[in-house]
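Lay summary. Proteins are chains of building blocks that fold into shapes, and those shapes determine what they do. In this project we predict the shape from the chain. Here is one chain we studied, written as its sequence of building blocks.
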Amino acid sequence: MKNYSIILLAAALSSCASIRRHNEQRTACISPEELKEDIDYAYLKLQKMHPQLYWYISKKDLDHKFDSLKQTINQPLTPLQFYFKLQPVIADIREGHLSLRIPRQKFSGKQIKALEHKKGMFSRFEYYIKDNHLFIVQNKDSIENIKPGTEVLSINNIPVSEYIKKYRELISSDGYNTTFYPYFLKDVFFNFYTAENGFADTACLETLYNGKSQNYTLHRESKSKNDLEKDKEQEKRTPERKVNDYVAFSNSYNRNFKFLDKDSTTAYLKIKSFSSDYSDKFYRETFAKIKNAGAKYLIIDVRNNYGGSLHEINNLYSYLAPEPYVLIKPSQLTSRISPLKTNYFRKSSPFQYAFKSLAYPTYVFAQTFSTYKKDGKIYYRMKADKPTKPHKDAFKGKVFVLINGGSFSASSIITAKLKYDKRATLVGEETGGANDGTVAGFYSYQKLPHSKINFPIGLLLVQPNIDFVNTKRGVLPDVTITESMQDIINKKDPQLEWVKKEIAKEEADK
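And here is the predicted shape, written in a compact code that computers can read:
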């Protein structure tokens, strides 16, 4: 026990020292020469690892952007300042999965616990972005009685429009579609803001509502005893929460299923993330209920779904396909050793590191034989690029899929396949992810040598098994219906309502 206590104390001291070094390095200035070396390092790694680097930008143009950036580096910068210079160039590659990680302050366990005992300041609102304007569309706790539809003009006297313009340059969709930005930016706006400005306990907002401006001061309030007990309750993983993939932070489920009518004619499936956790059981139980009820229509809602597991969307497709299918084309890599560049020991505890060390030879063996060469190109073996049979409980009726600019990555893969196979009617707006695929799969987590900024690079070119449209855009809906801010405030759903009316019309015509 004495030795164990010494080990724990040493680990705690090492962790504190690591946090201190990280935070000191985060605020230290780096010379222009070293920053230019980081730029060259980032571009070299991209050229070696990214399988479709010049999909949306020519090599000539990208070379020019990196060279031009280096010419602007003429004075020392902190890692955060450097991030705001380099990330816009990375975003110009137009690969939505490709992004530097913003250098954040690290917190000790004590500091994290203190933050956990306080309520969020900005996260208690839901937001809507249009052009360079930020609106509050939901005030969860009626804070200061701020009404939905209120525009936030400034935060601590800095115009919000300046932040939006600045942060907009940091993110990218896949390709040239523009629908992704307002959805993703509203979700990450305050991630950027707090990384840049820190976790303050107060913030002054200048707002505008119905032509009247008003100032509010937000406070980071302490949680009550009831709040803390509620947090504990939300963290419990009941069987229902596991299968429906409960998210404690938002007190909601990633997967929801229900019938929209008393006679179970129309089934509705909402999937907010393809997380894969317990998804096999969820789909097995859900489609058994749909089959037993004799439902004739199925609505699948993947709006605001940023993607996730390829296994999950392949499994979901098996419940929709009328015949054997292949979900994706063979996934391309830049080299046979790419799968070994995924930072196997990343974020491992001492115990995990020891266990992984024992398993490492097996891992290397498996990854080495996971690739193959064909027609001069290297591919990665995946189950989703092999023929899959429809599930015995596969749905035979009519399928509608709801999409919007927040439908990204795996959501775009499955909707592109459904549209190509004419298996569903897509309703909503162009997806944020590309119609013809993306680069993700798994990542090599690089770290720029001087700024220490983390740079995960996707290693797999993942494309739906379709004839490509080559538009460099998202998946286009069959029926275009957009949602306004007022619809959100009034809790109206014009896209779902259109589908309901279409089903009622079809039923009436029978």
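What the prediction tells us: Confidence is low (pLDDT under 50) at residues 1-13.
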